[in-house]
Design a protein that fits this description.
single chain, two-stranded parallel ribbon, seven-stranded parallel beta sheet, 13 strands, Rossmann fold
């Protein structure tokens, strides 16, 4: 059992109750850090308590759009991790407010208490991008590094794992739909990265194992097209489905219509984002700004998918025990 003391380093994790957040909190707790999880709804973050020892993990209320709550969440922190991001806009939760101005608020708050910082971003972040998601991710990076030049930025490709919104979503769709859509023909390339590996990389920045002021790009061991991702998923759940190409103009129209729903399956901005490959750059590979450069050996899609997609298999064929 790790001994937690008053002198243990305190890490504030914004967005710590989400998919990447819960694995990051676990990685930090295992190292003996005290973890303050800053979320909009701390009453819904109770699932994080079992990840650490008694009193090691504390949830507090914070909203990146409310500056005083951000300042309060970082009081006494030694390191701050910002994981907050959105895939689509909803009400006052706009890309600019959350991913650009929100990141700046966290960086300024961290600077005011002398804390170090790690900013979670995404491969493809580009201030000149046509995608509002990618553009504001880049603006968030710039805001953090201009405020805290020694901060680390961690960009990832598609993140997969037990609670992911990618493979799980399409596996669930395959249970009922005879066809799966391939936006733009499914040729866009990805480098899916396991959530536990991402969490380990984030924890290593807190450990001081990352080069200050450096941007890391995280991808798994394989580069797969969207079509290949669907083929891997279908193989794991043992289902045959027709993969139907959706031309870009049709996808844009679908995104415009579906984007009006409260929790859309597709938006116009996501269609724009899908037009670009999402893989670790040659420059990052050459400079060692990758998982391997941090000493993490990435897990493959085939090694992990069966551990959680088993529930989408044809009923009666396999159980979780069979795949363990």
């Amino acid at each position: 059992m790790t001994l937690i003391t008053e002198t243990s380093k305190l890490v504030t994790v914004f967005g710590g109750s989400g998919f990447i957040g819960r694995h990051t909190v676990r990685a930090l707790a295992r190292r003996g850090y005290r973890v303050r999880v800053a979320v909009r709804r701390p009453d819904l973050a109770g699932h994080l308590q079992p990840l650490g020892n008694v009193g090691q993990i504390q949830a507090v209320q914070a909203n990146l759009r409310v500056r005083w709550s951000v300042d309060r969440a970082v009081e006494g922190a030694d390191h701050v991790i910002n994981l907050v991001g959105i895939l689509h806009e909803s009400g006052r939760q706009s890309f600019n407010a959350v991913q650009a101005f929100g990141a700046r608020a966290v960086a300024e708050a961290a600077r005011s208490v002398g804390a170090k910082m790690t900013q979670m971003s995404a491969i493809g972040a580009d201030s000149a991008s046509e995608s509002d998601y990618a553009r504001t991710k880049a603006l968030g990076e710039e805001a953090v590094l201009s405020t805290l030049p020694d901060a680390n930025v961690v960009r990832s490709s598609i993140v997969f794992g037990p609670e992911d919104a990618f493979f799980n979503r399409f596996a669930a769709m395959a249970r009922f739909s005879p066809v799966l859509p391939l936006i733009g023909g499914g040729t866009t390339r990805y480098q899916p990265v396991y959530v536990v590996d991402v969490a380990e990389a984030l924890a290593l920045t807190v450990d001081g194992k990352a080069s200050p002021g450096t941007t890391y790009e995280l991808g798994g061991p394989e580069v797969l097209t969207f079509r290949e991702c669907m083929e891997h998923m279908l193989k794991v759940i043992d289902r045959r489905r027709m993969l139907v190409s959706v031309p870009w103009p049709v996808a844009r129209l679908q995104g415009a219509i579906l984007g009006m729903l409260p929790n859309p399956l597709l938006t116009s901005d996501q269609v724009r984002l899908l037009r670009n490959d999402n893989v670790v750059s040659d420059a990052a590979n050459a400079d060692g700004r990758t998982l391997s450069g941090l000493g993490v050996t990435p897990e493959s899609v085939d090694a992990i998918l069966p551990s959680y997609l088993w529930r989408y298999r044809v009923a009666g064929q396999y159980t979780k025990t069979n795949l363990a």
